[in-house]
Write a structure and sequence with these properties.
Strand content: under 5%
Number of strands: 0
Structural class: mainly alpha
Radius of gyration: 41 Å
Distance between the termini: 80 Å
Largest sheet: none
Order of helices and strands: HHH
Length: 136
């Protein structure tokens, strides 16, 4: 399965290397410090080198921003996944508590019904002390 962030890193490195290779090796140093009193005339090659540097700088900033955005997105996704896990755990705990409450109520009802059935059976067998008393 491809890993997009690794592919992006490889593409980033290749683009940066390509942009930097467009700049001649010693040209930047020669242009950075013009001689005092010399007229500054930018040749086509000088302009191209300057524009290449500007583009390379822009591309590097853009790639850094893209990388930061990717990291922020991955952190947000991880945070959301953690929230989902927490919510699922809370839901499971609430359901378990509810199910336990229902089970206790069912057990209490079953015990009360068993007691009532025993009283009815005893009453029908002649033990009138266990018969229900009419309400007044």
């Amino acid at each position: 399965m491809p890993q997009p962030h690794r592919e992006l890193a490889v593409r980033t490195a290749l683009i940066t290397a390509a942009l930097l290779s467009l700049q001649p090796a010693g040209l930047a140093l020669a242009q950075d410090k013009p001689k005092p009193g010399a007229a500054q005339v930018e040749t086509v090659e000088d302009e191209r080198a300057r524009l290449n540097r500007e583009q390379a700088d822009f591309a590097a900033r853009q790639l850094a921003e893209n990388d930061a955005n990717r990291r922020a997105y991955e952190e947000a996704v991880a945070e959301r996944e953690a929230t989902i896990v927490d919510q699922a755990a809370a839901s499971a705990a609430a359901k378990a508590a509810y199910d336990a409450q229902v089970a206790r109520a069912a057990a209490a009802h079953a015990a009360e019904m068993a007691r009532w059935r025993a009283d009815v059976a005893a009453c029908e067998a002649g033990n009138y002390s266990r018969c229900s008393q009419p309400k007044r």
